[in-house]
Every structure is written in structure tokens, then in C-alpha cells.
Specification:
Elements (H helix, E strand, L loop, with lengths): L1 E2 L2 H8 L5 E5 L14 H8 L2 E6 L12 E3 L11 E7 L8 H11 E12 L4 H9 L15 H10 L2 E9 L10 H13 L9 E8 L1
Parallel strand pairs: 1-7, 2-3, 2-5, 3-4, 5-6
Antiparallel strand pairs: 6-8, 7-8
Length: 207
């Protein structure tokens, strides 16, 4: 399945009764004051939402629902129906430790929802033709695709329940004319296949 936006993803994958932990809630490529900020969308959809990030803005300090901590070391006094980690895992030094914390922090039957760049998206594949390496966020530590993410989850006691893709055009940033032309091709290809879509979406459960 291809989700048009993170709003569509959240509306489909989050149930109104869910208690959700949003890991890395401050970022995810969308400004906090945007109506499409994933953390606000989660709060509007779920029964209760907690947040975790390396640092907290003043408005979240002294709030039991929020923690300033590393995603590889976090701990809360409750278990969650859903842990949502949008565009996070590719930033981590030790993703296995993060997945272990997720597994032990989920309720029985709970779900981990990950989004991460698809290694073989159109933009990476095109840039590989003209550059030694595609353009990448300097804070990323790894590339992931469906096969490697399945293996990583399996090695950490989790199994994939569903795989989809997220169509991620529309962010507010300046683009070159070459990128704008690629966007047209990207939109066309996405009508017929998901394999070049920019972001991978994986739902996993404890094995």
C-alpha cells in the first residue's frame, strides 16, 4: 500500500483506543506549527500519546508523558499499544538496542510502526548514476530496505506484520530544477509500482 501522507498513515494504522509512544517526536521533517506534524496528528487520533526525544522543549518539561532520553535506552512505567518511530531508525548508532526496548515496552499484541527512507527509491537510484553516492542526511548511519529491515527485526525478537510505502513529496524546502523534473517522473511511476517510492513503512510485532 502507498500512503499519500503521514496523516493518511496515522489514520489507517492508529486506532482511537491506542496508547501510543512517539519516539523522536520533535522532528520527522515537518515543523511543529504545521497542521501535518505527526505528533499532533497522533494526539488527535489516539486515546493517549507519550513522547520521547533527546531534548525537550520547555512546554514538555515536567510532564510525565514526555522523556528526554536516547531511543536506545528509554523506559516508561507503562506499556504501549503502539510505538511510532517516524524517520528515526536510520539515525541510530545501535538499532538493535532500540528494537529491544520497543519489544519490551509493547503490550502483548502491540505494534511497532517504523518509517525510514527506502534505499532503492527513485532519487537515490538516479543520483547513483551521476555521483559516487546519493545525497544523504549527514546524521544518517545506515541504509535500509524491506529485506534488511525484516532481518534486523527478526534478530531482535520481532516479526513484520505489514509493509507499505509513504509518498513524501510536498515538504517545504527549496529544490533544484532537476529535482522538480524527477518529482514528475516519481509521481508517474508511483501510479504503477511502489518499489521506487521514497519512504518504507513497516509494522512489526513481537515474534
Amino acid at each position: 500500500m502507498i500512503y499519500a501522507t503521514k496523516r493518511a498513515l496515522i489514520e489507517r494504522l492508529i486506532q482511537p483506543g491506542d496508547v501510543v509512544l512517539d519516539v523522536g517526536f520533535r522532528g520527522q521533517g515537518i515543523k511543529k506549527d504545521s497542521g501535518e506534524w505527526p505528533h499532533a496528528l497522533l494526539k488527535a487520533r489516539a486515546a493517549d500519546v507519550y513522547g520521547l526525544d533527546l531534548a525537550l522543549d520547555p512546554e514538555y518539561e515536567n510532564n510525565d508523558h514526555y522523556r528526554a532520553a536516547n531511543a536506545e535506552e528509554f523506559e516508561f512505567p507503562i506499556s504501549f499499544d503502539v510505538i511510532f518511530a517516524g524517520d528515526l531508525i536510520e539515525h541510530l548508532s545501535n538499532p538493535g538496542r532500540f528494537l529491544e526496548r520497543c519489544r519490551t515496552s509493547l503490550k502483548s499484541g502491540g505494534r511497532l510502526i517504523l518509517t525510514t527512507p527506502n534505499t532503492f527509491n527513485l532519487f537515490n537510484m538516479t543520483e547513483k548514476l551521476t555521483k559516487r553516492e546519493p545525497t544523504v542526511n549527514p546524521d544518517h548511519t545506515m541504509y535500509l530496505n524491506e529485506k534488511t529491515l525484516r532481518q534486523l527485526l527478526s534478530k531482535n525478537g520481532m516479526q513484520v506484520a505489514d509493509v507499505g510505502f509513504l509518498y513524501t513529496l510536498g515538504y517545504e524546502h527549496r529544490e533544484s530544477w532537476k529535482k522538480k523534473m524527477l518529482n514528475i517522473l516519481y509521481a508517474f511511476l508511483a501510479r504503477f509500482t511502489d518499489k521506487f517510492v521514497e519512504t518504507l513503512v513497516v509494522v512489526a510485532k513481537a515474534a
